[in-house]
Amino acid sequence: MSHEKFSDEFLNAFVDGELAPEEKSRVLLDMSQDEALNRRVCELKTLHDLVRTGYQNPPQSGSTPRATGDTRYRANIAAAVTLAFGILLGWLLREPVGLRTAAGPAPSQMPAPDTRTAGAAARAAPGDAAPARVLIHINDNNAVHLAQALDEVEALLAYYRAHRQNAVVEVVVNGAGLDLVRADVSAFPDRVEALLKEHRNLTIAACQNTIERLAREAGIAAQLLPGVTVIDSGVAQIMRRQQQGWAYIQV
Amino acid sequence: MRKMLSFLLALGLGVGLAAAGQAAEGYGKQKVVYHLNVDDPAQLKATVQNVQNHINAVGQENLDLRVVMHGNGIALLQQANNDADMQSKVINLKKQGIHFNVCANTLKGKKLNYKNDLFDVSEQDIVPSGVAEIAALQAKGYSYVKP
Fold first, then answer.
1. Which residues, 6+ apart, have CB-to-CB distance to A61 below 8 Å?
2. Does residue B133 belong to the interface with chain A, where contact is any CB pair within 8 Å?
3. Which of A65, A84, A247, B68 has a CB 3.0–4.6 Å from the CB of B138, allowing a cystine?
4. A121 touches chain B (CB under 8 A)
5. What's the Cα-to-Cα distance from B76 to each of B44, B79, B112, rounded to whole Å?
6. Cα radius of gyration rounded to whole Å, chain A
7. Cα dist from A182 to A147, A222, A243, whole Å
């Protein structure tokens, strides 16, 4: 993947936190796959922080242009500290691991010594007030596997219904997984339609990129089953949903 | 006075930065859920190895790791019932604080008795729905790994 597609101006906006969530997730996605881009962003971030640190104490208006011994001494310290800060920051951000550790949420709950009680404590509490939001990703077309995947989706929706828990479930199909929702080749057209009719909190979204690739490479104009929606990119959708706090499950 | 103040300030900053550097040295604390729903023996073997490598990298004291099994993935604990090598690996991982959770829907669907058919499973290890459990854990901040 090439990182030349992002201009410095765009990446600066990213570092300054001025991008829209979609653009941000695009950069984050690319950063996770492109080390050169990652390094470039780290360099910009270091520069950004250096500038910010340097301007925390702006020069007083009306101060004498010539530095006295005392101010020069202080300026030296400030410069040294700023430099050390910059070097350290650069070192901290030198690899994606550092970035992730720095940005990740603080873990709150650690394993208790007793395996059994800890296992029960973290159990999914039925009737949780917050709605469950789950993205299920399907990207292969093995019929046995697809049948199992549909079983899982059905069981999950039944579980939430039985426990009166608010939930939204989104199935994203891309790559070979698109076959599941293609009217001409789907192994389970009736099941897909029935599931969508039965559950208003279920969406099944097909990847536009895959549809376009089929048309381009195989000359196939994919017809989708009724009720199936289309999203721009399956992979981007997965990234977006996870950033919005959705759970991700590949079945 | 001013010199001393700026010196103290720089010193404090330096100590703070050193501490920050220390914290970034390892991976820090992690909460992770491993999702297992296949029964391919090679994949099962790879999964327990992945978990061990994860412990080694992060440190037992920093890790809250749960393996959630449903569908065919339950084969891991069936195999541990019959295969001494797999059994010792599971015992070893449990000693290091790893939880193995089993889906109740799967037990029902496959008509399995967890006491006889699976290795070392107690009632507390059973979750109502494997997939819902994985979703709930992620909502609580657990990272998702599909080995």
1. none
2. yes
3. A247
4. no
5. 6, 5, 14
6. 26
7. 15, 6, 29
- Express each pLDDT in A104-122 by its tens digit: 333 333 433 343 334 444 4
What residue has token string 């901290």?
A92
Substitution target from A82, A91, A148, A159 for chain B, most B beta carbons within 10 A: A159
CATH architecture of the region B27-145: 3-Layer(aba) Sandwich (3.40)
Q: Which of residues 138-167 of A touch B (CB under 8 A)?
A: 148, 151-152, 155-156, 159-160
Rounded Cα gap, residues A246 and A108, in angstroms: 19
Q: What fold is seen in the domain A130-250?
A: Hypothetical Protein Ychn; Chain: A, (3.40.1260)
pLDDT at A29 over 60: yes
Q: Does ipTM top 0.85?
A: no
